[in-house]
């Protein structure tokens, strides 16, 4: 049996804490004695601190000076996500489409999954496709060409990605529990911005079953339906459910795509659970927040 592969995988809101340094400066004010008033002597409270007097030697002792705080120096190239002298402070977001290492660094890590009950499952996969393009994705034969985009190995291929990074997550306690695949992809020009509207347009005509020949003895019957409840994160969001019927068997996968700037986040999980249900809502929201903080809009 063929498993649907709409992303690069086989099967609470998180914030980024930014540390800062506040430099405090002391200002001195001259004291005006006014007409006929007694002048302040060294050691008294005045606008300008005076020297104290050594009781034994009888000579003035200059006041102690506090060291000036050191400003943090940020090193490293913009967008590397490292090199700051303050832990947890990212470098400037990349100015163009993110690279595969930058996308990988923006994926949710194990330490950020505590509230979700998930764990990282298996090694990451990532690739910079701009200098080393993937071969044209093999799209199964579809009897309605307008629906072929949903039968691709990776839906984001429709946006001609410059780079992508993928990580899989699984239930930390139950082997047969929730599973989720997350892919971040970067796009040049308006290719990423055109991807989600194109999917929305195609969805309406693909709600009726269409035949997909995926290499089996008989074609599979696919249908696509929009899904409500996806977290409203990023610049635009779309979600849909794919139902595949083969003989007497039926399988379902839910897909959520969120675009922010030149980056698209794709979430795919088996079953028909709503995107706003646990643990999916927390992962979607947290992933978009982290990626936007590191990669920019």
UniProtKB/TrEMBL annotation:
Signal sequence, start to end: 1-28
Biased composition (Pro residues): 60-70
Keywords: Signal
PROSITE patterns: PROKAR_LIPOPROTEIN
Chain spans, region Disordered: 29-100, 121-143
Protein name, entry field: Lipoprotein
